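R.M. (postdoc): so does anyone remember the format we settled on? I'll just put the C-alpha coordinates first.
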Protein backbone atom coordinates (compact mmCIF):
# COMPACT_ATOMS: atom_id res chain seq x y z
CA UNK A 1 0.00 0.00 0.00
CA UNK A 2 1.37 3.42 -0.96
CA UNK A 3 2.36 5.81 1.80
CA UNK A 4 -0.31 8.37 0.87
CA UNK A 5 -3.02 5.71 1.17
CA UNK A 6 -1.59 4.52 4.48
CA UNK A 7 -1.49 8.06 5.88
CA UNK A 8 -4.97 8.87 4.57
CA UNK A 9 -6.34 5.65 6.05
CA UNK A 10 -4.61 6.25 9.39
CA UNK A 11 -5.94 9.83 9.67
CA UNK A 12 -9.41 8.74 8.60
CA UNK A 13 -9.57 5.82 11.02
CA UNK A 14 -8.21 7.79 14.00
CA UNK A 15 -10.43 10.84 13.40
CA UNK A 16 -13.53 8.77 12.65
CA UNK A 17 -13.03 6.50 15.65
CA UNK A 18 -12.53 9.52 17.92
CA UNK A 19 -15.63 11.18 16.50
CA UNK A 20 -17.74 8.06 16.94
CA UNK A 21 -16.53 7.57 20.52
CA UNK A 22 -17.26 11.21 21.42
CA UNK A 23 -20.67 11.03 19.72
CA UNK A 24 -21.64 7.81 21.46
CA UNK A 25 -20.47 9.13 24.83
CA UNK A 26 -22.44 12.36 24.32
CA UNK A 27 -25.55 10.49 23.26
CA UNK A 28 -25.13 8.03 26.12
CA UNK A 29 -24.88 10.84 28.65
CA UNK A 30 -27.87 12.62 27.11
CA UNK A 31 -29.88 9.39 27.10
CA UNK A 32 -28.88 8.68 30.70
CA UNK A 33 -29.94 12.09 31.98
CA UNK A 34 -33.11 12.05 29.84
CA UNK A 35 -33.99 8.63 31.23
CA UNK A 36 -33.48 9.95 34.74
CA UNK A 37 -35.73 12.91 33.92
CA UNK A 38 -38.36 10.58 32.45
CA UNK A 39 -38.20 8.35 35.51
CA UNK A 40 -38.52 11.37 37.82
CA UNK A 41 -41.51 12.72 35.86
CA UNK A 42 -43.13 9.28 35.88
CA UNK A 43 -42.68 8.95 39.62
CA UNK A 44 -44.15 12.41 40.09
CA UNK A 45 -47.17 11.43 37.99
CA UNK A 46 -47.56 8.21 39.97
CA UNK A 47 -47.29 10.03 43.26
CA UNK A 48 -49.86 12.64 42.16
CA UNK A 49 -52.28 9.92 41.11
CA UNK A 50 -51.73 8.05 44.39
CA UNK A 51 -52.34 11.25 46.36
CA UNK A 52 -55.63 11.91 44.55
CA UNK A 53 -56.86 8.36 45.14
CA UNK A 54 -55.86 8.37 48.80
CA UNK A 55 -57.59 11.73 49.21
CA UNK A 56 -60.82 10.31 47.79
CA UNK A 57 -60.59 7.20 49.96
CA UNK A 58 -59.99 9.50 52.92
CA UNK A 59 -63.23 11.33 52.04
CA UNK A 60 -65.14 8.03 52.27
CA UNK A 61 -63.28 7.19 55.46
CA UNK A 62 -64.21 10.55 57.00
CA UNK A 63 -67.79 10.11 55.83
CA UNK A 64 -68.08 6.76 57.61
CA UNK A 65 -66.45 8.27 60.70
CA UNK A 66 -69.09 11.05 60.76
CA UNK A 67 -71.90 8.54 60.48
CA UNK A 68 -70.41 6.26 63.11
CA UNK A 69 -70.11 9.03 65.69
CA UNK A 70 -73.21 10.97 64.67
CA UNK A 71 -75.02 12.43 67.68
CA UNK A 72 -77.56 15.16 68.44
CA UNK A 73 -79.47 16.24 71.50
CA UNK A 74 -82.33 13.85 70.93
CA UNK A 75 -80.46 10.96 69.28
CA UNK A 76 -77.15 9.13 69.53
CA UNK A 77 -76.40 6.43 66.93
CA UNK A 78 -74.23 4.19 69.10
CA UNK A 79 -76.68 4.36 71.98
CA UNK A 80 -79.51 3.44 69.63
CA UNK A 81 -77.55 0.50 68.13
CA UNK A 82 -76.80 -1.06 71.52
CA UNK A 83 -80.38 -2.27 71.85
CA UNK A 84 -79.95 -4.44 68.72
CA UNK A 85 -77.03 -6.39 70.10
CA UNK A 86 -79.55 -8.57 71.95
CA UNK A 87 -82.04 -10.42 69.72
CA UNK A 88 -85.10 -9.93 71.98
CA UNK A 89 -84.31 -6.47 73.35
CA UNK A 90 -86.03 -4.45 70.63
CA UNK A 91 -89.49 -4.22 69.04
CA UNK A 92 -90.53 -3.49 65.46
CA UNK A 93 -91.41 -0.02 66.62
CA UNK A 94 -87.83 0.40 67.83
CA UNK A 95 -86.52 -0.75 64.44
CA UNK A 96 -88.88 1.64 62.62
CA UNK A 97 -87.85 4.55 64.80
CA UNK A 98 -84.14 3.72 64.35
CA UNK A 99 -84.60 3.43 60.57
CA UNK A 100 -86.14 6.89 60.44
CA UNK A 101 -83.26 8.40 62.38
CA UNK A 102 -80.53 6.54 60.54
CA UNK A 103 -82.01 7.33 57.12
CA UNK A 104 -82.07 10.97 58.17
CA UNK A 105 -78.40 10.79 59.05
CA UNK A 106 -77.58 9.13 55.68
CA UNK A 107 -79.63 11.74 53.85
CA UNK A 108 -77.69 14.49 55.56
CA UNK A 109 -74.14 13.16 54.99
CA UNK A 110 -74.55 12.06 51.37
CA UNK A 111 -76.40 15.17 50.28
CA UNK A 112 -75.34 15.95 46.70
CA UNK A 113 -72.85 13.03 46.64
CA UNK A 114 -74.13 11.49 43.43
CA UNK A 115 -71.26 9.02 43.19
CA UNK A 116 -72.78 7.10 46.17
CA UNK A 117 -75.60 4.67 45.36
CA UNK A 118 -76.75 4.10 48.92
CA UNK A 119 -75.62 3.80 52.54
CA UNK A 120 -76.67 1.07 54.97
CA UNK A 121 -76.11 -0.28 58.43
CA UNK A 122 -76.22 -4.06 58.77
CA UNK A 123 -77.22 -5.12 62.29
CA UNK A 124 -75.48 -8.15 63.85
CA UNK A 125 -78.55 -10.29 63.09
CA UNK A 126 -78.49 -9.36 59.37
CA UNK A 127 -81.20 -6.71 59.46
CA UNK A 128 -80.46 -3.92 56.99
CA UNK A 129 -81.25 -0.24 57.47
CA UNK A 130 -80.41 1.65 54.28
CA UNK A 131 -80.96 4.88 52.40
CA UNK A 132 -80.57 5.11 48.63
CA UNK A 133 -79.53 8.22 46.73
CA UNK A 134 -80.28 6.44 43.45
CA UNK A 135 -82.45 3.57 42.21
CA UNK A 136 -80.03 1.02 43.61
CA UNK A 137 -80.21 -0.62 47.02
CA UNK A 138 -79.78 -3.97 48.72
CA UNK A 139 -82.16 -6.58 47.30
CA UNK A 140 -85.04 -7.69 49.49
CA UNK A 141 -84.17 -10.83 51.37
CA UNK A 142 -80.41 -10.47 50.67
CA UNK A 143 -78.33 -11.96 53.51
CA UNK A 144 -75.08 -10.03 53.72
CA UNK A 145 -73.75 -12.12 56.62
CA UNK A 146 -72.81 -14.91 54.19
CA UNK A 147 -71.00 -12.64 51.76
CA UNK A 148 -67.21 -12.57 51.35
CA UNK A 149 -67.02 -8.82 51.49
CA UNK A 150 -68.87 -8.86 54.85
CA UNK A 151 -66.42 -11.39 56.31
CA UNK A 152 -63.51 -9.26 55.07
CA UNK A 153 -65.07 -6.25 56.81
CA UNK A 154 -65.26 -8.17 60.11
CA UNK A 155 -61.59 -9.14 59.71
CA UNK A 156 -60.69 -5.44 59.24
CA UNK A 157 -61.63 -4.86 62.94
CA UNK A 158 -63.14 -1.40 62.50
CA UNK A 159 -60.90 -0.21 59.66
CA UNK A 160 -62.34 0.79 56.30
CA UNK A 161 -62.56 -2.16 53.93
CA UNK A 162 -62.82 -1.81 50.15
CA UNK A 163 -64.17 -4.73 48.16
CA UNK A 164 -65.95 -5.65 44.94
CA UNK A 165 -69.08 -7.82 44.98
CA UNK A 166 -69.76 -9.90 41.87
CA UNK A 167 -73.22 -11.03 43.11
CA UNK A 168 -75.96 -9.76 40.80
CA UNK A 169 -78.72 -10.47 43.33
CA UNK A 170 -77.12 -8.34 46.05
CA UNK A 171 -78.15 -4.99 44.55
CA UNK A 172 -81.41 -3.93 42.94
CA UNK A 173 -80.89 -2.68 39.35
CA UNK A 174 -77.21 -3.56 39.55
CA UNK A 175 -77.15 -5.27 36.17
CA UNK A 176 -74.13 -7.32 35.18
CA UNK A 177 -71.51 -4.90 36.48
CA UNK A 178 -69.80 -5.54 39.82
CA UNK A 179 -70.46 -3.19 42.66
CA UNK A 180 -68.02 -1.46 45.02
CA UNK A 181 -68.38 -1.59 48.82
CA UNK A 182 -66.67 0.67 51.38
CA UNK A 183 -67.50 -0.90 54.73
CA UNK A 184 -66.42 -0.84 58.36
CA UNK A 185 -67.65 -2.42 61.60
CA UNK A 186 -69.07 -0.37 64.50
CA UNK A 187 -68.13 -1.53 68.01
CA UNK A 188 -69.37 -0.44 71.44
CA UNK A 189 -66.81 1.73 73.14
CA UNK A 190 -67.26 0.04 76.47
CA UNK A 191 -68.17 -3.57 75.86
CA UNK A 192 -66.39 -3.87 72.49
CA UNK A 193 -69.45 -5.68 71.17
CA UNK A 194 -70.33 -5.54 67.50
CA UNK A 195 -73.12 -3.00 67.05
CA UNK A 196 -73.37 -3.17 63.27
CA UNK A 197 -71.59 -2.76 59.94
CA UNK A 198 -71.65 0.52 58.05
CA UNK A 199 -71.70 0.17 54.22
CA UNK A 200 -71.24 2.78 51.49
CA UNK A 201 -72.06 1.42 48.04
CA UNK A 202 -70.55 3.01 44.92
CA UNK A 203 -70.09 2.07 41.31
CA UNK A 204 -66.54 1.14 40.25
CA UNK A 205 -66.64 4.35 38.26
CA UNK A 206 -66.26 6.03 41.64
CA UNK A 207 -62.57 6.14 40.70
CA UNK A 208 -63.29 7.82 37.37
CA UNK A 209 -62.15 11.06 38.92
CA UNK A 210 -58.55 9.91 38.48
CA UNK A 211 -59.02 9.32 34.76
CA UNK A 212 -61.09 12.41 33.96
CA UNK A 213 -57.94 14.55 34.03
CA UNK A 214 -55.00 12.26 33.43
CA UNK A 215 -51.80 13.51 35.03
CA UNK A 216 -48.89 14.30 32.71
CA UNK A 217 -47.74 11.25 30.68
CA UNK A 218 -50.18 8.90 32.50
CA UNK A 219 -52.52 7.11 30.06
CA UNK A 220 -53.87 4.24 32.14
CA UNK A 221 -54.73 3.15 35.69
CA UNK A 222 -55.40 -0.06 37.51
CA UNK A 223 -56.36 -0.43 41.18
CA UNK A 224 -55.96 -3.87 42.70
CA UNK A 225 -56.73 -5.06 46.21
CA UNK A 226 -53.52 -6.82 47.21
CA UNK A 227 -54.94 -9.33 49.72
CA UNK A 228 -57.33 -11.08 47.35
CA UNK A 229 -55.74 -9.79 44.13
CA UNK A 230 -59.09 -8.28 43.12
CA UNK A 231 -59.18 -5.54 40.49
CA UNK A 232 -61.11 -2.56 41.86
CA UNK A 233 -60.81 -0.25 38.87
CA UNK A 234 -59.31 -0.10 35.37
CA UNK A 235 -59.12 2.88 33.00
CA UNK A 236 -57.15 3.68 29.87
CA UNK A 237 -56.77 6.66 27.58
CA UNK A 238 -58.39 6.40 24.16
CA UNK A 239 -55.23 7.74 22.51
CA UNK A 240 -53.23 5.32 20.37
CA UNK A 241 -49.98 4.88 22.26
CA UNK A 242 -47.17 2.77 20.78
CA UNK A 243 -44.49 3.12 23.46
CA UNK A 244 -45.52 2.73 27.10
CA UNK A 245 -44.12 1.60 30.41
CA UNK A 246 -45.69 0.65 33.74
CA UNK A 247 -44.97 1.86 37.22
CA UNK A 248 -46.53 0.58 40.45
CA UNK A 249 -46.93 1.76 44.03
CA UNK A 250 -48.95 0.71 47.04
CA UNK A 251 -51.38 3.18 48.62
CA UNK A 252 -53.76 3.15 51.59
CA UNK A 253 -51.13 1.28 53.61
CA UNK A 254 -52.53 2.29 57.00
CA UNK A 255 -55.93 0.76 56.24
CA UNK A 256 -56.11 -1.70 53.37
CA UNK A 257 -53.14 -1.87 50.94
CA UNK A 258 -54.15 -1.18 47.35
CA UNK A 259 -51.79 -1.55 44.43
CA UNK A 260 -51.86 1.37 41.99
CA UNK A 261 -50.39 0.62 38.56
CA UNK A 262 -50.10 3.47 36.06
CA UNK A 263 -49.29 3.21 32.36
CA UNK A 264 -46.84 5.90 31.21
CA UNK A 265 -46.74 7.33 27.70
CA UNK A 266 -43.13 7.21 26.46
CA UNK A 267 -43.93 7.94 22.83
CA UNK A 268 -42.87 11.57 23.09
CA UNK A 269 -39.49 10.59 24.49
CA UNK A 270 -39.15 7.78 21.94
CA UNK A 271 -39.94 10.17 19.10
CA UNK A 272 -37.47 12.67 20.53
CA UNK A 273 -34.73 10.03 20.71
CA UNK A 274 -35.49 8.82 17.19
CA UNK A 275 -35.26 12.37 15.86
CA UNK A 276 -32.07 12.93 17.79
CA UNK A 277 -30.53 9.69 16.50
CA UNK A 278 -31.55 10.46 12.93
CA UNK A 279 -30.04 13.94 13.09
CA UNK A 280 -27.00 12.56 14.86
CA UNK A 281 -26.37 10.01 12.10
CA UNK A 282 -26.79 12.68 9.43
CA UNK A 283 -24.30 14.96 11.17
CA UNK A 284 -21.97 12.02 11.74
CA UNK A 285 -22.12 11.05 8.06
CA UNK A 286 -21.36 14.63 7.00
CA UNK A 287 -18.45 14.79 9.43
CA UNK A 288 -17.08 11.46 8.17
CA UNK A 289 -17.19 12.78 4.60
CA UNK A 290 -15.46 15.98 5.74
CA UNK A 291 -12.81 13.92 7.55
CA UNK A 292 -12.22 11.81 4.45
CA UNK A 293 -11.79 14.86 2.23
CA UNK A 294 -9.55 16.57 4.79
CA UNK A 295 -7.41 13.46 5.33
CA UNK A 296 -7.03 13.05 1.55
CA UNK A 297 -5.94 16.66 1.16
CA UNK A 298 -3.63 16.48 4.17
CA UNK A 299 -2.00 13.20 3.13
CA UNK A 300 -1.50 14.37 -0.45
CA UNK A 301 0.16 17.53 0.80
CA UNK A 302 2.89 15.52 2.52
CA UNK A 303 3.07 12.26 0.62
CA UNK A 304 2.82 13.37 -3.03
CA UNK A 305 6.41 14.72 -2.99
CA UNK A 306 7.61 11.48 -1.38
CA UNK A 307 5.75 9.33 -3.92
CA UNK A 308 7.23 11.34 -6.80
CA UNK A 309 10.68 11.06 -5.28
CA UNK A 310 10.30 7.29 -4.96
CA UNK A 311 9.20 7.16 -8.61
CA UNK A 312 12.32 9.05 -9.62
CA UNK A 313 14.48 6.70 -7.55
CA UNK A 314 12.91 3.62 -9.17
CA UNK A 315 13.77 4.79 -12.66
CA UNK A 316 16.54 2.77 -14.30
CA UNK A 317 19.56 5.04 -14.88
CA UNK A 318 22.20 3.62 -17.21
CA UNK A 319 25.01 6.03 -17.94
CA UNK A 320 23.82 9.46 -17.02
CA UNK A 321 22.58 10.24 -13.48
CA UNK A 322 20.94 13.64 -13.54
CA UNK A 323 18.18 15.29 -11.53
CA UNK A 324 15.33 17.20 -13.12
CA UNK A 325 14.44 20.39 -11.27
CA UNK A 326 10.98 20.53 -9.66
CA UNK A 327 9.00 22.70 -7.27
CA UNK A 328 9.65 20.48 -4.22
CA UNK A 329 13.40 21.09 -4.21
CA UNK A 330 12.92 24.69 -3.07
CA UNK A 331 10.88 23.75 0.02
CA UNK A 332 12.50 24.53 3.36
CA UNK A 333 11.14 21.55 5.26
CA UNK A 334 12.38 17.94 5.42
CA UNK A 335 10.87 17.13 2.01
CA UNK A 336 12.99 19.89 0.43
CA UNK A 337 16.04 18.45 2.19
CA UNK A 338 15.28 14.99 0.75
CA UNK A 339 15.11 16.37 -2.80
CA UNK A 340 18.28 18.43 -2.33
CA UNK A 341 20.21 15.49 -0.87
CA UNK A 342 18.96 13.21 -3.65
CA UNK A 343 20.26 15.71 -6.20
CA UNK A 344 23.64 15.76 -4.41
CA UNK A 345 23.71 11.97 -4.34
CA UNK A 346 23.03 11.71 -8.07
CA UNK A 347 25.71 14.28 -8.86
CA UNK A 348 28.19 12.44 -6.63
CA UNK A 349 27.22 9.10 -8.20
CA UNK A 350 27.63 10.55 -11.67
CA UNK A 351 31.12 11.77 -10.82
CA UNK A 352 31.94 8.40 -9.26
CA UNK A 353 30.81 6.55 -12.36
CA UNK A 354 33.02 8.74 -14.52
CA UNK A 355 36.00 7.98 -12.26
CA UNK A 356 35.11 4.30 -12.21
CA UNK A 357 34.93 4.22 -16.00
CA UNK A 358 38.36 5.80 -16.25
CA UNK A 359 39.71 3.35 -13.65
CA UNK A 360 38.24 0.38 -15.48
CA UNK A 361 39.83 1.56 -18.68
CA UNK A 362 43.17 1.87 -16.89
CA UNK A 363 42.69 -1.56 -15.30
CA UNK A 364 41.90 -3.11 -18.66
CA UNK A 365 45.09 -1.62 -20.04
CA UNK A 366 47.06 -2.92 -17.03
CA UNK A 367 45.59 -6.40 -17.42
CA UNK A 368 46.62 -6.40 -21.05
CA UNK A 369 50.15 -5.46 -20.02
CA UNK A 370 50.12 -8.22 -17.36
CA UNK A 371 48.90 -10.68 -19.95
CA UNK A 372 51.74 -9.53 -22.22
CA UNK A 373 54.20 -9.96 -19.34
CA UNK A 374 52.69 -13.38 -18.69
CA UNK A 375 53.48 -14.37 -22.25
CA UNK A 376 57.05 -13.08 -21.80
CA UNK A 377 57.41 -15.02 -18.52
CA UNK A 378 56.91 -18.33 -20.36
CA UNK A 379 60.22 -17.69 -22.05
CA UNK A 380 61.79 -17.25 -18.56
CA UNK A 381 60.22 -20.51 -17.28
CA UNK A 382 61.51 -22.40 -20.30
CA UNK A 383 64.99 -20.94 -19.85
CA UNK A 384 65.06 -21.93 -16.14
CA UNK A 385 63.90 -25.41 -17.05
CA UNK A 386 66.76 -25.69 -19.57
CA UNK A 387 69.30 -24.56 -16.89
CA UNK A 388 67.87 -27.15 -14.53
CA UNK A 389 68.22 -29.88 -17.18
CA UNK A 390 71.87 -28.95 -17.83
CA UNK A 391 72.56 -28.89 -14.05
CA UNK A 392 71.15 -32.38 -13.67
CA UNK A 393 73.20 -33.64 -16.64
CA UNK A 394 76.35 -32.14 -15.14
CA UNK A 395 75.18 -33.38 -11.70
CA UNK A 396 75.36 -29.93 -10.09
CA UNK A 397 72.56 -30.33 -7.47
CA UNK A 398 72.54 -26.82 -6.00
CA UNK A 399 72.00 -25.19 -9.37
CA UNK A 400 69.24 -27.70 -10.11
CA UNK A 401 67.47 -27.07 -6.77
CA UNK A 402 67.77 -23.28 -7.06
CA UNK A 403 66.53 -23.11 -10.63
CA UNK A 404 63.64 -25.51 -9.91
CA UNK A 405 62.59 -23.59 -6.80
CA UNK A 406 62.89 -20.27 -8.60
CA UNK A 407 60.83 -21.63 -11.49
CA UNK A 408 58.11 -22.82 -9.07
CA UNK A 409 58.02 -19.42 -7.37
CA UNK A 410 57.70 -17.57 -10.70
CA UNK A 411 55.02 -19.94 -11.88
CA UNK A 412 53.08 -19.59 -8.58
CA UNK A 413 53.38 -15.79 -8.50
CA UNK A 414 52.32 -15.27 -12.13
CA UNK A 415 49.60 -17.90 -12.45
CA UNK A 416 47.27 -15.93 -14.73
CA UNK A 417 44.90 -13.55 -12.91
CA UNK A 418 44.23 -15.85 -9.94
CA UNK A 419 44.73 -13.88 -6.71
CA UNK A 420 43.77 -16.60 -4.23
CA UNK A 421 45.44 -19.80 -3.08
CA UNK A 422 45.13 -22.41 -0.36
CA UNK A 423 47.22 -22.34 2.79
CA UNK A 424 48.93 -25.53 1.55
CA UNK A 425 49.98 -23.77 -1.68
CA UNK A 426 51.25 -20.80 0.33
CA UNK A 427 53.36 -23.12 2.50
CA UNK A 428 54.79 -24.80 -0.61
CA UNK A 429 55.78 -21.38 -1.97
CA UNK A 430 57.55 -20.70 1.36
CA UNK A 431 59.40 -24.02 1.01
CA UNK A 432 60.61 -23.06 -2.49
CA UNK A 433 61.75 -19.67 -1.21
CA UNK A 434 63.68 -21.26 1.69
CA UNK A 435 65.46 -23.69 -0.68
CA UNK A 436 66.86 -20.71 -2.57
CA UNK A 437 67.84 -18.87 0.65
CA UNK A 438 69.64 -21.87 2.12
CA UNK A 439 71.74 -22.20 -1.05
CA UNK A 440 72.43 -18.44 -1.03
CA UNK A 441 73.56 -18.34 2.61
CA UNK A 442 75.19 -21.78 2.44
CA UNK A 443 73.56 -23.02 5.63
CA UNK A 444 70.19 -24.41 6.60
CA UNK A 445 67.53 -22.19 8.18
CA UNK A 446 65.74 -23.48 11.30
CA UNK A 447 62.23 -23.35 9.83
CA UNK A 448 59.32 -25.45 10.97
CA UNK A 449 55.73 -25.65 9.75
CA UNK A 450 53.39 -26.64 12.60
CA UNK A 451 50.21 -26.62 10.51
CA UNK A 452 48.74 -30.09 10.20
CA UNK A 453 44.97 -29.39 10.22
CA UNK A 454 43.29 -30.38 6.96
CA UNK A 455 40.73 -27.56 7.44
CA UNK A 456 43.51 -24.99 7.71
CA UNK A 457 45.47 -26.37 4.76
CA UNK A 458 42.32 -26.30 2.57
CA UNK A 459 41.38 -22.73 3.57
CA UNK A 460 41.51 -20.02 0.89
CA UNK A 461 43.71 -16.95 1.49
CA UNK A 462 45.08 -14.10 -0.66
CA UNK A 463 48.09 -15.29 -2.71
CA UNK A 464 51.66 -14.61 -1.45
CA UNK A 465 51.00 -13.50 2.13
CA UNK A 466 53.25 -16.00 4.00
CA UNK A 467 56.46 -15.86 1.87
CA UNK A 468 56.99 -12.06 2.37
CA UNK A 469 56.63 -12.52 6.15
CA UNK A 470 59.18 -15.36 6.19
CA UNK A 471 61.45 -13.20 4.02
CA UNK A 472 61.13 -10.31 6.50
CA UNK A 473 61.99 -12.71 9.34
CA UNK A 474 65.22 -13.67 7.51
CA UNK A 475 66.28 -10.20 6.35
CA UNK A 476 65.18 -8.14 9.37
CA UNK A 477 64.75 -10.59 12.24
CA UNK A 478 67.94 -12.60 11.51
CA UNK A 479 69.92 -9.69 10.07
CA UNK A 480 69.88 -11.21 6.55
CA UNK A 481 70.53 -14.69 7.88
CA UNK A 482 73.59 -13.61 9.85
CA UNK A 483 72.85 -15.91 12.78
CA UNK A 484 71.06 -19.18 13.38
CA UNK A 485 67.53 -18.09 14.26
CA UNK A 486 64.27 -19.99 14.37
CA UNK A 487 61.20 -19.40 12.20
CA UNK A 488 57.90 -21.03 13.06
CA UNK A 489 54.64 -21.03 11.10
CA UNK A 490 51.44 -22.11 12.85
CA UNK A 491 47.67 -21.61 12.62
CA UNK A 492 44.44 -21.77 14.60
CA UNK A 493 40.72 -21.63 13.85
CA UNK A 494 38.65 -19.65 16.38
CA UNK A 495 34.91 -19.77 15.72
CA UNK A 496 34.58 -18.75 12.05
CA UNK A 497 37.99 -17.04 11.75
CA UNK A 498 41.45 -18.25 10.66
CA UNK A 499 44.61 -17.06 12.41
CA UNK A 500 48.06 -17.63 10.80
CA UNK A 501 51.18 -17.01 12.92
CA UNK A 502 54.74 -16.32 11.61
CA UNK A 503 57.23 -16.07 14.52
CA UNK A 504 60.96 -15.65 14.84
CA UNK A 505 63.34 -15.28 17.78
CA UNK A 506 65.40 -12.60 16.07
CA UNK A 507 66.46 -9.09 17.02
CA UNK A 508 62.89 -7.76 17.27
CA UNK A 509 61.88 -4.09 17.10
CA UNK A 510 61.96 -1.11 19.41
CA UNK A 511 58.69 0.36 20.68
CA UNK A 512 59.05 3.43 18.41
CA UNK A 513 59.64 1.32 15.33
CA UNK A 514 56.73 -0.96 16.22
CA UNK A 515 54.43 2.05 16.80
CA UNK A 516 55.35 3.60 13.44
CA UNK A 517 54.88 0.28 11.63
CA UNK A 518 51.46 -0.24 13.17
CA UNK A 519 50.47 3.33 12.17
CA UNK A 520 51.53 2.63 8.58
CA UNK A 521 49.52 -0.60 8.54
CA UNK A 522 46.49 1.40 9.67
CA UNK A 523 46.86 3.52 6.49
CA UNK A 524 47.89 0.62 4.25
CA UNK A 525 45.23 1.28 1.58
CA UNK A 526 46.72 4.76 0.98
CA UNK A 527 50.41 4.05 1.53
CA UNK A 528 50.51 1.00 -0.75
CA UNK A 529 50.64 3.37 -3.75
CA UNK A 530 53.47 5.56 -2.43
CA UNK A 531 55.44 3.69 0.23
CA UNK A 532 58.75 1.96 -0.52
CA UNK A 533 59.81 0.75 2.94
CA UNK A 534 57.92 -2.18 4.49
CA UNK A 535 56.11 -2.50 1.17
CA UNK A 536 55.61 -6.24 1.73
CA UNK A 537 53.67 -5.81 5.00
CA UNK A 538 51.69 -2.82 3.70
CA UNK A 539 50.85 -4.66 0.50
CA UNK A 540 49.66 -7.74 2.43
CA UNK A 541 47.55 -5.57 4.79
CA UNK A 542 45.94 -3.72 1.87
CA UNK A 543 45.18 -6.94 -0.01
CA UNK A 544 43.70 -8.64 3.07
CA UNK A 545 41.34 -5.72 3.70
CA UNK A 546 40.32 -5.69 0.03
CA UNK A 547 39.96 -9.47 0.10
CA UNK A 548 38.08 -9.88 3.42
CA UNK A 549 37.04 -6.47 4.78
CA UNK A 550 38.23 -3.92 7.32
CA UNK A 551 37.70 -6.28 10.29
CA UNK A 552 40.63 -8.44 9.16
CA UNK A 553 44.34 -7.84 8.61
CA UNK A 554 47.82 -8.06 10.20
CA UNK A 555 48.76 -7.60 13.87
CA UNK A 556 52.45 -7.31 14.89
CA UNK A 557 53.90 -8.18 18.29
CA UNK A 558 57.64 -7.56 18.88
CA UNK A 559 60.13 -6.89 21.67
CA UNK A 560 63.71 -5.80 21.28
CA UNK A 561 66.06 -8.84 21.29
CA UNK A 562 63.10 -11.18 21.84
CA UNK A 563 61.84 -11.70 18.33
CA UNK A 564 58.71 -10.84 16.39
CA UNK A 565 55.33 -12.51 15.85
CA UNK A 566 53.02 -11.51 13.02
CA UNK A 567 49.37 -12.64 13.18
CA UNK A 568 47.25 -12.79 10.02
CA UNK A 569 43.50 -12.66 10.76
CA UNK A 570 41.24 -13.96 7.96
CA UNK A 571 37.73 -15.38 7.62
CA UNK A 572 37.79 -19.15 7.18
CA UNK A 573 37.01 -20.06 3.58
CA UNK A 574 37.43 -23.37 1.83
CA UNK A 575 38.83 -23.57 -1.68
CA UNK A 576 36.27 -23.99 -4.47
CA UNK A 577 37.16 -26.82 -6.88
Amino acid sequence: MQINKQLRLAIFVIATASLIVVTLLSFGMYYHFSSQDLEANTKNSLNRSASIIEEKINDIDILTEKVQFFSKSSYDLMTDLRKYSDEGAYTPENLFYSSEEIEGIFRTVIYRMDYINFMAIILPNGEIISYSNTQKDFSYGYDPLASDWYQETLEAKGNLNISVAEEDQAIINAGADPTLFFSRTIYDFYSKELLGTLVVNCEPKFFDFISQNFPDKVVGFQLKETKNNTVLYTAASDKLITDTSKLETTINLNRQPILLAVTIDNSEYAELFQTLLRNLFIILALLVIAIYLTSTRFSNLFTTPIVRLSTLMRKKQTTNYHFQANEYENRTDEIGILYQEYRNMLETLDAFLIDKLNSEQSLLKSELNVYKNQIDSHFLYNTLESINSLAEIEEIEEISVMTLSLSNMFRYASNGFINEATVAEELQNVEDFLHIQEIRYQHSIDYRNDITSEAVLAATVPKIILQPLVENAIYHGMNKGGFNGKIRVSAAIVEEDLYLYVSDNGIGMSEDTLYKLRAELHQASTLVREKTAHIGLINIEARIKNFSGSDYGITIFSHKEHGTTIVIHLPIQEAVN
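R.M.: ...and that's the designed sequence above, right after the C-alpha coordinates. Also worth knowing: The longest helix spans residues 3-68. The mean pLDDT is 79.
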